[in-house]
Write a structure and sequence with these properties.
Blueprint: H1 3-21, H2 37-48, H3 53-60, H4 64-76, H5 90-122
Length: about 120
């Protein structure tokens, strides 16, 4: 066995031993934080009142980039909370209403077609 292969075996053995001892822990994926709209608005208000984004993020225990994205979204008017639905404009509401009406009319048509066929059989 060469010096390098014995060194590799000893390193891999040490890593295995450390895993057994709990020194090296398997990292689990952290759950993504969900913030309410009120929390986001308060953080944005603090930034707009003159505090730096870094200071507000540090004080609220979040990543600077997250707060920067909230400030940007607030200026664009697209800031929303974890439990709030996305903004729906008038056209999307009209499309939704028309789809529901179309489904209702199709159901009525199918019922009338079946009723017509039923009564046509009875007259023969």
């Amino acid at each position: 066995m060469t010096l390098i292969s014995s060194w590799c075996c000893s390193i891999s053995g040490m890593i295995f031993f450390w895993k057994l001892q709990g020194v090296i822990q398997n990292k689990k994926k952290a759950k993504r934080a969900r913030y309410t709209l009120e929390f986001k608005q308060e953080a944005v208000r603090l930034v707009e009142s003159g505090q730096s984004i870094a200071a507000v993020a540090r004080g609220m225990g979040m990543v600077v980039q997250t707060l920067f994205n909230w400030v940007k979204a607030s200026r664009e008017g697209t800031l929303k909370g974890a439990d709030s639905p996305s903004r729906v404009n008038a056209e999307q509401m009209e499309i939704s209403r028309l789809r529901a009406e179309l489904a209702r009319v199709k159901m009525e048509r199918d019922i009338l077609g079946k009723a017509t066929a039923y009564f046509a059989k009875g007259q023969k």
